[in-house]
Specification:
The complex is a heterodimer of chains A (443) and B (184). With 443 residues, chain A is mainly β. Chain A has two domains: 36-163, Rossmann fold, CATH 3.40.50.10070; 172-441, 6 Propeller (Neuraminidase), CATH 2.120.10.30. Helix content of chain A is 12%, strand content 43%. Chain A contains four helices and 30 strands. Chain A has helices spanning 3-13, 56-73, 96-100, 147-163; strands spanning 39-48, 77-79, 106-114, 118-127, 132-133, 138-143, 171-179, 186-193, 200-201, 209-214, 220-225, 232-237, 242-245, 252-259, 265-272, 275-282, 285-291, 299-304, 310-315, 322-327, 334-335, 344-350, 357-363, 366-372, 380-381, 388-393, 399-406, 411-418, 424-426, 432-441. In chain A, the strands form seven sheets. In chain A, strands 1, 2, 3, 4, 5 and 6 form a six-stranded mixed β-sheet that branches. Chain A is globular, with a radius of gyration of 23 Å. Chain B folds into two domains: 1-60, no CATH class; 61-184, 2-Layer Sandwich (60s Ribosomal Protein L30, Chain: A). In chain B, 38% of the residues lie in helices and 14% in strands. Chain A: Part of the Tol-Pal system, which plays a role in outer membrane invagination during cell division and is important for maintaining outer membrane integrity.
Chain lengths: 443, 184
């Protein structure tokens, strides 16, 4: 496989419509090219309402820190330290001449207004070289406890204006929290902000649970539970934290569920008499289910294309685990993974943009995360062979989150990586965690 | 009936070379555990060579023995659900035990090692458990008394870095028996 050719082709294909800005705008980062030098960016927030609310200054600092962490975490930006920059204020004219004398290329000037039980965050983004604002100023109002979401919204706006990509910071991730030794591991379903903050547990620790998956609207999480003795698919309302079984045949194990992009179908694996096939069930009528693969091979881990017309899945019909794409009715299965001898592929997941399929690749030297086009071309590994597994796409299809096992007791940690493979970092989370599933961008 | 005899011979040879501490057993002074056991222990006085007699715990289950004596676990090759000779011998004893203890039913738990995806290993564990179930049924156990479940790679017997010998212990199917749950 010719990696270089694949990358340059990708770059050419990725020129996205760039609403509101000229294509030759100077302040622009192309993620697909792999950013070698992060863009220096300064963030200045001032506080209103500090007289009535003594903690307002501290809150402003926290909001500024969240915005800075979001942007810096992409690997695309370098946040400038406050001391090496000119004075600036939200309602002041920007002194472009003074700013141009620094290394800083983009400037965010904002204001945090703290009220009784609420907070308002407003900002303006400036292109220092061009000497002009980049887009209009925007204001986010939020209840006091929602300050993190308001901060993510600001960072999303800045990210989108500079990269031309869709936002993803204001989103949540479902995952499996792990504790105890590997031979008797305790697992529970949790959700957290994309950056690991605000963890909420959705299941108790007494039942073994696996592989949570968000519905397209983010209100429901599907997961697999051993509570009945046989793995079955559960549907959990995130708001009320109440779970109901979608499958309950004691002679059939059901697992690996995934919503269709329009939320009306669930593709899943169903095992009877030792044979595992892919089935579809209707969300409104889960007792109506039909198989879309047949035969003695293991067919599992289905994932929908964003238009809902195709499924990519993992099958050992050739003798080892490989990836196949078929139409959603089960017709026309075509193998797409052809790695070196001894390489097997699994856990495919279709990018929400449709342009890539992420997967886990296993060889003698270990497992790693990779991406390929839906026709199998342009295969690229994003991590070194180790114990990496279970990739899940950010809502904008530009970042993946996955599980990495390390240490003698196989402790699982979540990591994120961008599609160039250059920006790999652990997710800040106190708990051992696996099986991440990135939810949609919040409204 | 020449076939069963060769099978027994093969089983004896295999179980001998699969003793976990082969070297230690050979180098240790020869002691007879039956003689030294408290209360005199159990002594086997049968003639091994006489037709119809079998060593206890090896290829036959004496009525009243604990199920564990049959061997609860069989092991598999990588990505495989095919039973090997040793596994078939263990399952033959399990089938005997289940035939003798009709009040019991069995749950066969299929397991996989760490390499491979979570979903694939769940399916593979089910394949292994079913393979065991089918063998037990072929040896005369009623199908309705045996249920299968897969744990995939969720419940390894050993925690392995990536040593082959350690991973091999996790590719297994464990038969668990219990009373009064017959009929599934």
């Amino acid at each position: 496989m010719n990696r270089r050719a694949a990358i340059s082709l990708f770059g050419a294909a990725a020129i996205a419509p760039f609403a509101g800005f000229a294509q030759d705008a100077p302040l622009r980062i192309e993620i697909t090219e792999g950013v070698m030098r992060p863009m220096p960016l300064a963030i200045r927030f001032e506080t209103l309402g500090a007289g009535d609310h003594p903690d307002a200054e501290a809150l402003t600092k926290e909001i500024e820190d969240v915005i800075a962490a979001d942007l810096q975490g992409t690997g695309l930006f370098e946040i400038a330290k406050p001391q090496d920059a000119p004075h600036a204020g939200f309602d002041m004219t920007v002194d472009y001449i003074a700013w141009k004398a620094t290394d800083i290329e983009a400037l965010v000037i904002g204001q945090v207004a703290v009220g009784d039980g609420n907070v308002t965050v407003r900002f303006r983004l400036y292109d220092v070289f061009a000497g002009q604002p980049l887009g209009d100023g925007i204001q986010f109002d939020s209840p006091r406890e929602g300050w993190r979401r308001a901060s993510h919204k600001v960072a999303d706006q800045i990210y989108t204006r500079i990269t031309g990509e869709s936002p993803y910071f204001d989103s949540r991730i479902a995952f499996i929290g792990e504790s105890g030794p590997a031979t008797a591991r305790v697992k529970r379903v949790g959700v957290m902000d994309y950056d690991g903050a605000d963890v909420k547990w959705l299941t108790a620790t007494d039942d073994l649970v696996l592989s949570p998956r968000f519905s397209p609207d983010g209100r429901t999480v599907l997961y697999t539970s051993f509570a009945s003795g046989v793995p079955q698919i559960m549907s959990l309302d995130v708001e009320t934290v109440s779970a109901t079984p979608l499958t309950n045949d004691p002679r059939a194990m059901s697992f690996a569920p995934r919503y269709s992009p329009d939320g009306t179908w669930i593709a899943f694996s169903r095992e009877t008499a030792g044979n595992t096939d892919i089935w579809l069930m209707e969300v409104r009528n889960p007792s109506f289910a039909k198989p879309v693969t047949r035969g003695p091979s293991i067919d599992t881990a289905p994932s929908w294309s964003p238009d809902g017309q195709h499924l990519v899945f993992e099958s050992d019909r050739s003798g080892s685990s490989q990836l196949y794409v078929m139409r959603a009715d089960g017709s026309g299965p075509t193998r797409i993974s052809f790695g070196e001898e001894g390489a097997s592929y699994g856990e495919p997941t279709w990018s929400p943009r449709g342009d890539r399929i992420a997967f886990t690749r296993q060889t003698d030297t270990g497992s790693s995360i990779g991406i390929m086009r839906p026709d199998g071309s342009g295969e690229q590994l994003l991590s070194e062979p180790g114990k990496d597994a279970g990739p899940s796409w950010a809502p904008n299809g530009r970042v993946l989150i996955f599980t990495r096992l390390s240490g003698d007791d196989q402790v699982a940690q979540l990591h994120s990586v961008d599609i160039t493979g250059r920006n790999m970092r652990p997710v800040a989370l106190n708990d051992a965690a696996s099986d991440p599933a990135w939810g949609p961008l919040l409204p | 009936m020449r076939l069963p005899l060769t099978l027994i011979a093969a089983t004896l040879a295999l179980s001998a070379c699969n003793m976990p501490n082969d070297a230690a057993v050979v180098s240790a002074p020869v002691t007879d555990p039956y003689v030294n056991a408290a209360g005199g222990g159990a002594v086997y006085r049968g003639d091994v060579n006489a037709p119809g007699t079998r060593l206890p715990g090896v290829d036959s289950i004496a009525p009243g023995t604990d199920f564990a004596a049959a061997g609860t676990t069989v092991y598999f090759d990588e990505s495989q659900a095919v039973l090997n000779d040793e596994g078939r011998a263990t399952l033959t004893r399990q089938a005997q035990w289940l035939t003798q203890n009709a009040a019991y039913s069995a749950v066969v738990e299929g397991h996989a090692d760490e390499p491979g995806t979570r979903e694939f290993n769940l399916a593979l564990g089910a394949r292994r458990a079913t393979s065991v179930q089918e063998y037990l049924v072929s040896k005369g156990v009623e199908a309705g008394r045996i249920r299968t479940v897969s744990f995939g790679k969720e419940r390894p017997a050993s925690i392995c870095a990536s040593e082959a010998s350690c991973l091999a212990r996790n590719r297994r199917a464990v038969t668990v028996v219990s009373q009064s749950q017959a009929g599934v």
